[in-house]
Amino acid sequence: MPSEDNKRIATNTIFLYMRMFLTIIVNLYTFRIIWQVLGVDDYGIYNVVGGIVMMFSFLNTAMIVSSQRFISFELGRNNKDQLNKVFSICVTVHSLLAIVVFVLAETAGLWFLNNKLNIPEGRMLAANWVYQCSIIAFIITIISVPYNSCIVAHEHMKVYGYLGILDVILKLITVFLLIFIPFDKLITYSILVLIVSVLMRIIYQIYCKQHFDECKIRKVHDSKLMKDMFSFSGWSFVGSLGYSLKDQGINILLNIFFSVAINAARGIANQIGTTINGLASNFQMAINPQITKRYAANDLNGMIKLVFLGCRFSVLLMAIITTPLIIAAEEILILWLGNCTEYTIGFLQLTLCLVLIESIINPITTAIQATGHIRNFQIIISIIMLLNLPISWLLLRFDANPYIVLFVAITISILGIMVRLRLLHGLILFSYKKFITEVFIRIIPVVFFSFVISICIYRFIPKNIGFLILFVAASVFFTILLIFCIGINKTERQAILKVLRQRFFKPQ
Questions:
Q1: How far apart (Å, rounded) are the C-alpha atoms in residues 85 and 166?
Q2: pTM for the complete prediction?
Q3: Residue 426: how many CB atoms within 10 A of its CB?
Q4: How far from 77 is each of 101, 284, 285, 302, 504, CA to CA, in Å?
Q5: How many C-beta neighbours within 10 Å does residue 498 have?
Q6: What digits encode the pLDDT tens for the residues 366-386?
């Protein structure tokens, strides 16, 4: 892979991590206030009602994948006219998709909310306010996809990072306003989040129109391109449906079998899991456009190297932060929230295990999508993901233990990883042996020994805030040391040492 591409990936990763660390800090602080202001039941309502709207996200997810793939592909081929056509089609399709989602949400979704969900007495009006605001915010997200895809495909991660920081700052402001506004807190919070979504949509659109030539909408009469994009999107719908039902369907299952308090516990775990997942997704966001561009340029060896690198570093980066969080989940939750509901600790530990396992998936999926041959992939993966619902429902019928749904999800995710590798091998021949030696043999010892060492440290320290900070620091240190010794190869190790020498040991 050209050194210029390596430099771009490194630079983009740095900016994305600057955004991520600030986002994590602000999000965790913001969530603490939201938890205290809304309380268990109202937060549970917000989580499960918003989940109904997110059930329709499989439609939008499919188009996000399609938009990013085709825009990155045309940038890789340096075809500006075709790039403008792709963008214009994306805008048209997303506008139509927004209408479809609105109709479905205001009919089937609204009926489900008012007739099937387990909402506490007297909070149905607030639940409907949350629902309507969530619908509008989601529609705005759908319309914004082509513009966000251009920023990612052009690898303008610096701007993407700044706008992400602005987004979390605006949400922090809404939380402070929530404390002082003397109206229903749940309704007020939903409206304020909607206002932030509208503002961010306007900013993204203005930036793209000023910086990217292709962001000029025109009528397109290219039946072949439209057919290719719709075919790609159509099969993406199938795969996205599996993911959507897995995530949001399980949330609804928990509400039916238990209560909004269980939804609140899972919501806390998902909030932390999503925030921590930024550690891997920011790195992947920097590397994914290059995977597609390498394929478009017919550099298959460079593409496979990037996939291996992305899989390995995604898991290693996640291990640094998930290890201490899983082990000291109870103390960290109490320190963060002041208190936590029943099941929150277990949900958090299992969710972080799931996030760690699934961090390996994205580079493999991006490589498969880059080829454009996704029919078999989407059908098979969708079926595998959909197994979460019937298996979880069946097990909950026999054993009312909410943890079961996450044990099922972990098992199915491991199966999904193996299937993805097999499907990628069928599209682009690569060595299984090399994948095992470059990825699995490096990440498994790091994850295993980091847990063993961290558990040993945790069991012999007092459980107070000072020693908790010491434990987290020690866990992070030993995990990084293991990554340096085992997780990276000799060339990568020498490159890191060279950078450190140049940065900290410059000759006087």
A1: 31
A2: 0.70
A3: 12
A4: 33, 21, 20, 16, 40
A5: 10
A6: 888 888 777 788 788 888 888
